[in-house]
Amino acid sequence: MSLTRRRLTAALAALAPVLAARPAAAQEQGSRPLPRTLHVAGDSTAATKTARAAPETGWGMALPFFLGRRLTVANHAVNGRSSKSFIDEGRLDVLLEAVRPDDLVLIQFGHNDAKTDDPTRGTDPFTTYQKYLRRYLDGTRARRARPVLLTSVERRRFGPDGAARPTHGDYPAAVRELARAEGVPLLDLQALSLERWQELGEQGSIACFLHLAPGQSPNHPDGVQDNTHFSPRGAVEVARMTARALRDSRVLAARDLRRLDDPVDPGRITWPPD
Description:
Strand content: 5-15%
Radius of gyration: 23 Å
Strand order of the largest sheet: 2-1-3-4-5
Helix content: 25-40%
Distance between the termini: 76 Å
Shape: globular
Number of strands: 7
Structural class: alpha/beta
Mean pLDDT: 90
Order of helices and strands: HEHEHHEHEHEHEEH
Largest sheet: 5 strands, parallel
Low-confidence stretches: 1-30
């Protein structure tokens, strides 16, 4: 019996360094618990549109096309909201109540923060805008979840020289600065979308936005030329660039994503009833 005990003790002693090394190896590979839900806090560019607004489409509606089956999207984005008004209306509290450890919270505001003539929504880029965004970061961290900052997706605007023009002033720079200061992952949708609209060109990018001729849609009988909000194709474009940015920033691993380079039929998008 004593010999058996000595052998067992020796075997355990030999195994101990191997067991101790496993957590370090996992940490080196960046392994982490798989997020269950991606919560989206944002404005009309990301929001889920109802049937009454079709074919207008928020990019959050197309994001599930690019996620693995174990991930879901909870889209809390609402038309017309800024980082300030989303909080003042209690929407951040509702979002955070649903957040679980290791979930992701994607935070994209700026379009309506720039409406500084509206005291209910306007913020200043490097003061109140960052102040409100920090409340999203702090609330997410308190839930042991992972915040991700996004710069505002660009509008469609081209100059006389045919170059795509930025439209968001200092708000994207303020988000980049805050992400660095807080050590938070950044998805730079402003830069990515501006580059994409440039690639497509002034005429080619029209198909990504809500441009409809009179009579083309019963929801827009007089037609519309909207260079801020997306068509189904545009929502797919922005959702794809968001998913790629999640991979490139190592927020999600490649195994958590799908179809990043494959065609996705925008006709698969559906609009919930009003």
